[in-house]
Write a structure and sequence with these properties.
The complex is a heterodimer of chains A (451) and B (327). Chain A is mainly beta and 451 residues long. Chain A has 2 helices and 33 strands. Chain A has helices at residues 2-13, 411-439; strands at residues 24-25, 48-55, 67-69, 72-76, 80-85, 91-96, 106-110, 113-121, 128-134, 140-145, 155-157, 160-164, 169-174, 179-185, 195-197, 200-207, 212-219, 225-231, 241-243, 246-250, 255-260, 266-271, 283-285, 288-292, 297-302, 308-313, 332-334, 337-341, 346-351, 357-362, 368-374, 377-382, 388-394. In chain A, strands 1-3-4-5-6 form a 5-stranded antiparallel β-sheet. A 4-stranded antiparallel β-sheet of chain A has the order 2-33-32-31, with no helix packed on it. In chain A, strands 7-8-9-10 form a 4-stranded antiparallel β-sheet. Chain A is globular and about 90 Å long. In chain B, 62% of the residues lie in helices and 2% in strands. In chain B, β1 (30-33) and β2 (39-42) form a beta hairpin. Classes of the chains: A mainly beta (451), B mainly alpha (327). Chains A and B meet through α2 of A and β2, α1, α2 and α10 of B.
Chain lengths: 451, 327
């Protein structure tokens, strides 16, 4: 275990406060803006082979989206936080937690140390606390008590960590000391990690009673509200992604909305096949936004206009008991591929340029959740009774697919299948007609005829 | 009885295989001698089983009555996919349903393409209007067959004449559905569902005869719809109109949709439905056409009894027979 600690220490050695090592998937969707990509990481490209599986040892709930620090994947289970060696999939450390919702941890740096921040507690609506441990020694550095339970997960930008609670309060916490910087009291529940970019913190919340979804932008240093978007009967919004000066989120009216990140002015909307999960976020890079909805549709839309470039539909996604849990995964970009985990345990890779399926694997029952990229490896969280972290690496002997979405029109197939069915049904009805006529007596009277 | 009996403008040509019906309980033929001495003959009112049997005979012996709706369903699907529809094709089983069964399909696909925007309402209406044109023409041809003729240009023209009525029926149903949905939401989820079902069943109950009335009687939109409502409230032998409406409703919505969801490929979103899905969709379309013909057969039977003005319906004394049964 010592070499791993040393490795983490080396990775963090050059890091000053607020500066992360280069090879870090530091939080939900890779970084504070949630774009689902980290250019400095050279991750594995499809086709993949399963490198290892780390089954959750202490409970049957699985893991939230992992983060990656150097050669260690860090994931939160219901009973503990685990460090897993990226090359072997073996547990390198474990820190017990008291329980509570399984949410996304984050990585920060302070005082030359690399910190892992996570939420602990929060069961039965008891208040949660934010915990910081040293990534190298797993020693607890500080805790910060929240006023209510939290399911939001943790976001970090520089020297501040941000968490929201189920009472609508957003907390900014100094990562070096664990002290509160400011709080903002909004409305509803904050259910996804806040996004941070350009000096603003973006938080989404939903009001269960009123059915309102709200997006707010707050000043990162003071917590002052800069703008707000609220709409009734939207029920909830997804996690927020900030890219190219736009804050993008999906809502339960099937619309992804892009706002001017600085002013909140609506820029475009993109209609999806279904609602976007409150636990998911769009991915964005190179003028494109990638959206995944609860029905299993992944779409690429233009970052400038929201117009659809391509769409791919994964069929056969079995619904889970709570509809929005069907699609916990968010799209992640690696090279020229978009990765997505499905509610039925499949991991798929789509070409980012054509939207065609490049590769697909079934990991068995249990929804796939968040994806994290490390150098040469893809780590996927699996939920439910088969909860696990699964590592995939490039398979040089594998085959890349090139399958169009089943929702793409194939004129030959469409006409051919219809023609076969037409012949069958017309033949059957003609036969039925013949039999009926034979049985009919010849003295039938037409309806409404004159004599 | 003050029913106004109209003379047919074109004598029926007797076919070798007429789509004649057997009746469950009435066998006598109603007859009236007009002032000029011409005798007009009305058949007895068919019961539900007989009407459905007449529908099956009419549809299976006249390929045109199937070819038109089959082609319509195929073209509609192709156009909707080109517009961006990405849904499982199971809903297609109701694409050629009798309104308001088909209205459920229209709203579904319009919202799938355009979301919960006003444009989706517009698209639903456009689909309904196009289908109304097809249904009106089918009604003209179908009544030709039920009258004992082959489908003819005369029937086609009668169908064209009925287009405004069928469009109006669709407009009424869409309006009732939209406003009903908004209104019933205020009542809570359970009552909202019941309210929506009531709109669907009520629309079918009162308006299903309107195309037949428009084709047969050429009385204009308003009067055709009124007569459809009055005909619906008459007492039918061999099972009431409400029972037949409920049977069609249960077959048209839950049963066909359930079956479509279980056919291989039926629940997968695709632009290119499988042979099995297409086969079920065509069978479902056949079923819709059989019911349409059956409703028309019942209307034609009860037509002479339809009052020209609304009458208050009273419960008959025990043992008394309805006018339709007396005939």
């Amino acid at each position: 275990m010592l070499p791993l600690f040393l490795a983490c220490g080396v990775a963090a050695a050059g890091a000053t406060e607020g500066t992360l090592p280069a090879t870090v998937w530091s939080e939900f969707q890779g970084g504070p803006a949630h774009t689902g990509s980290v250019p400095s990481i050279t991750s594995a490209q499809p086709p993949y082979t399963r490198a290892w599986t780390f089954e959750e040892p202490d409970s049957d709930q699985g893991f939230a989206a992992p983060v990656i620090v150097g050669d260690v994947a860090v994931a939160l289970g219901s009973k503990a936080v685990y460090g897993v060696d990226l090359s072997s999939g073996r547990q390198t450390w474990r820190v017990a937690r008291t329980g509570g919702p399984i949410t996304e941890p984050a990585v920060a740096t302070a005082g030359g140390k690399t910190l892992v921040l996570y939420l602990d507690g929060g069961s039965n609506q008891e208040p949660s606390k934010l915990v910081a441990i040293d990534a190298a020694t797993q020693k607890e550095l500080w805790t910060f008590a929240l006023g209510a339970a939290s399911v939001s997960g943790v976001s970090v930008d520089g020297s501040s960590a941000f968490v929201g609670d189920t009472q609508g309060v957003l907390y900014a916490v100094d990562v070096s000391k664990g002290k509160q910087e400011w709080t903002f009291k909004g409305t509803g529940r904050i259910e996804a990690p806040p996004a941070i970019a350009g000096g603003l913190v973006y938080m989404g919340s939903r009001e269960l009673q009123q059915g309102n979804a709200t997006v707010r932008a707050l000043d990162e240093s003071t917590g002052t509200q800069k703008w707000m978007f609220a709409q009734q009967q939207l029920a909830s919004g997804s996690a927020i992604t900030v890219s190219d000066g736009r804050a993008i989120a999906g809502f339960t009216d099937r619309l992804a909305r892009a706002f001017d990140a600085a002013t909140g002015t609506g820029e475009w909307t993109a209609l999806m096949s279904n609602a976007l999960s409150p636990r998911g976020a769009p991915a964005a890079a190179a003028g494109a936004v990638y959206l995944a909805d609860l029905a299993g549709t992944v779409e690429r839309v233009s970052a400038d206009s929201g117009s659809r470039t391509w769409s791919y539909r994964f069929n056969g996604v079995r619904p889970l008991p709570i509809p929005y849990l069907d699609f916990w995964s968010s799209p992640v970009l690696t090279g020229s591929s978009v990765l997505i985990g499905l509610g039925d345990g499949r991991l798929g890779a789509l070409s980012s340029s054509t939207g065609h399926l490049q590769w697909e694997a079934d990991t068995g029952p249990g929804a796939l959740g968040g994806i994290a990229l490390g150098n040469g490896i893809v780590v996927v969280a699996k939920q439910g009774v088969n909860g696990a972290l699964i590592g995939f690496r490039h398979d040089a002997s594998g085959t890349l697919l090139d399958e169009a979405s089943p929702t793409e029109l194939d004129a030959g197939q469409l006409v051919g299948r219809f023609a076969v069915a037409l012949v069958l049904v017309l033949g059957a009805t003609a036969l039925a007609g013949l039999l009926i006529r034979r049985r009919d007596s010849t003295d039938d009277e037409p309806i409404g005829a004159e004599s | 009885m003050t029913a106004k009996k109209r003379r047919r403008r074109r004598p029926a040509t007797t076919r070798s295989e007429p789509a004649a019906i057997e009746t469950d309980d009435a066998t006598e033929v109603d007859e009236e001698t007009l002032e000029d001495g011409e005798v007009v003959e009305y058949p007895p009112v068919p019961g539900i089983i007989s009407a459905l049997r007449a529908g099956v005979v009419a549809v299976t012996t006249t390929p045109l009555l199937l070819a038109i709706p089959f082609l319509f369903v195929f073209l509609l699907w192709t156009i909707l996919v080109l517009l961006g529809l990405q849904v499982p094709p199971s809903g297609l089983v109701d694409a050629m349903g009798i309104p308001p069964i088909s209205t459920v399909f229209d709203f579904g696909v319009a919202q799938a393409i355009f979301g919960y925007a006003p444009s989706s309402l517009f698209v639903a209406f456009v689909i309904a209007v196009v289908r109304a044109v097809v249904l009106a023409i089918l009604a003209g041809l179908m009544i030709d067959v039920l009258e004992g003729s082959r489908p003819s240009m005369y029937g086609f023209l009668r169908g064209i004449r009925a287009i405004p009525t069928v469009v109006a029926v669709n407009f009424l149903i869409i309006t009732a559905t939209v406003f009903g949905t908004q209104l019933f939401v205020l009542l809570g989820p359970g009552l909202s569902l019941l309210g929506s079902l009531a709109v669907l069943i009520g629309g079918l109950y009162f308006l299903v005869f309107a195309p037949a009335s428009a084709v047969r009687e050429a009385r204009g939109v308003q009067e055709s719809i009124r007569r459809s409502g009055r005909a619906a409230r008459l007492r039918f032998p061999g099972g009431s109109h409400l029972i037949m409406v409920m049977v069609y409703f249960l077959v048209g919505l839950p049963l066909l949709l359930f079956a479509a969801g279980r056919v291989p490929g039926g629940s997968d979103a695709t632009a290119n439905p499988s042979v099995a899905v297409w086969a079920l969709v065509l069978v479902a379309t056949f079923v819709h056409m059989v019911f349409l013909a059956a409703f028309f057969a019942r209307f034609m039977g009860v037509e002479p009894e339809i009052p020209d003005k609304p009458v208050r319906r009273t419960r008959p004394a025990r043992g008394a027979q309805s006018p339709a049964r007396r005939r």
